[in-house]
Amino acid sequence: MSAMKIFVAPSAGACPGVTKALKVVEAALRQCPDNIYCLHDIVHNRQAMGRLLRLGLQKVDSLGRLKSGDNLVINTHGAGPSLYHNALSKRINIIDTTCANVRRVQKLAGDLAKAGYRLMITGEPNHPEVKGIIEWCGQPPIVIKDINDLSPLDIKDNIKIALISQTTFPVNRFLAIARHLKNCHSSLRIDRTICPSAELRQKGVSEIANKVDTIWVIGSSHSANTQALLEMAQTYHPDSRLIEDITEINTDHLYGVNTLGITAGASTPDWVINTVLERIKDLSENHIRYTESIEKGSGL
Predict the structure, then answer these.
(1) What is the pTM of this model?
(2) Same structural domain for residues 173 and 230?
(3) What is the CA radius of gyration of the chain?
(4) Which of 24, 88, 163, 206 is the most core-located residue (most Cβ within 10 A)?
(5) CA–CA separation, 85 and 248 (whole Å)
């Protein structure tokens, strides 16, 4: 195998919100290693969650498993108001790692509903972030996963409609849905609530796409922002692949690849990226040399 060029996309990897959340939970585990619980993954990355569980984090399936004085971590995707109410009524301490961008969307959803808007959300209906936003808006919104979901909708043009988004939704899909709705509903209000970090990572894919033979996206398959990056990468290189950990890499994947693009989801810690890069180098007969790379940005 000849020497390979690797291009690392700008801002690949953990966003500031994920980095902060992991630090907050790790600090709490150092203080109370036997008394920190979560109902859902703090971040959608299996390696990061595995590390927290090894440090003592305990995952439970219901709030009923906790008692007064226990500590509950609200994950970065946020939660609905009922969880806060129920936890506080049981005198459970809350460690809130909800992403600031998610919190802003939750508030916006509630404000728009109170102002009389019929709310539409672009996102995955079963994603915890979307479920939380729905609860905060206080009325059943319309959740749109892709543009095909619009065809059966029958919404009168004389009512106020507002379009917002799950923070990690693919930008190109959001814009296509927004254009379609704008053509059909003159009263449409559009709030582009996709996280700036998620947008930067999606933009980073386009910045390296024309320089590489294929793109590898590092992250977990259940991560929405990682899947958005893969979707974008595959529009340029259909053979682009998701790499969750080093066990998924072998020499066959590198055969014929002279230039490799690397990006990673906003929930993927840097140490996970580094282990993948080291594995790639180990598999190269002549050891891959970094003849060119793109410096990672800060993410915001």
Answers:
(1) 0.87
(2) no
(3) 21
(4) 163
(5) 42
